Amino acid sequence: MTDEPRIALERVSRWYGNVVAVNDISFALRPGVTGLLGPNGAGKTTLLHMLAGLLRPSSGTVRIAGEIAWRNPSIYRSIGLVPEREAVHSFLTGREFARLAAQLQRLPDPDGAAARAIATVELEGAADRPIGTYSKGMRQRAKIAAALVHEPSILLLDEPFNGMDPRQRIHMMALLREMSAAGRTILFSSHILEEVERLADGVLVIVAGRLAAAGDFREIRRLMTDRPHTFVVRSSDDRRLAAAFLAEPAVFGAELHDGRLAVQVAEFGGFTRAVARVARDTGVTLFEVAPTDDSLESVFAYLVSRR
Amino acid sequence: MNTFVVLASVTLRALLGRRRSILMLILAAMPIVLGLLVRVNERELRGETLGATLDGFVVRVVLPLIALVFGTAALGAELDDGTAVHILTKPIERWRIILAKVAVAGTLTAALVVPSTILAGVFMGGGEAASLATTFAFALATFLGSYVYAAIFLVLSVATSRGLIIGLAYSLIWEGILAGLLPGSQVFSVREYIGGIAAALAPAGVPESLIGSSGLLYAAIALLLAITIGSVRLATYEVRGTD
Question: pTM score > 0.90 for this model?
Answer without folding.
Answer: no
